[in-house]
Amino acid sequence: MTVTIRAEGPADVSPVHAVTERAFRNAPHSDQREPFIVGALRESGALTVSLVAEVRGDVIGHAAISPVTIPDSPPGWYGLGPVSVVPEHQGRGIGSQLIKQALATVRSNGALGCVVLGEPGYYGRFGFRVVSGLVYPGAPGEYFQALWFTGRLAQGEVSYHDAFSTAPGQAFYDRYTGGPSDFIVYQLAIQ
Ligand SMILES: CC(C)(COP(=O)(O)OP(=O)(O)OC[C@H]1O[C@@H](n2cnc3c(N)ncnc32)[C@H](O)[C@@H]1OP(=O)(O)O)[C@@H](O)C(=O)NCCC(=O)NCCS
User: Which CATH number fits the domain that encloses residue 132?
Assistant: First the structure.
């Protein structure tokens, strides 16, 4: 099976929405806002990296990276996610390919670093680590990780783009601030 990873184009908008919707439909840590978040990021010009995975002409995966802000840190920090692979193609390394290429893309464009909110073991595979003093308010520390490319290591509270809170429905990332119980459900779901 040949998987092509490429930047999204205008014709991918609807397939990306569908892929994201399907990937998160049964994810217990999700409130199913992810496709709308991707759309809101795109409309705001904040979809810094948007890669699709294609198999036989069909979009079956997607990875997004958008800017984050950290007070007292220079611009150049980004957040990874949402990342989606349709259920029938999960577990074949496609998510890993998307993530590696998305990180390489943002890095080659001059990013200082990238953060991620999610399962520590999974994202640790790509070099993400907990950084003392770099936090996402409300999230248990081990679930918020950073990958530092260059420059001075950022410190402080990270804010995601407004699209994460203004897209329809309950804020996706607020799910992660609900306390450890959400994380236990999330962890069980991916084991
Ligand atoms: C997370 C996701 C993008 C991974 O894509 P994938 O193509 O299945 O991942 P890969 O094949 O590269 O990696 C598979 C590994 O990731 C693990 N994994 C799969 N989904 C995971 C998740 N949500 N969290 C943590 N680990 C996960 C698998 O257990 C597997 O582990 P193994 O290599 O030890 O067997 C995909 O499972 C997905 O779309 N999930 C639903 C949406 C989601 O939860 N996205 C992440 C939050 S933004």
Answer: 3.40.630.30
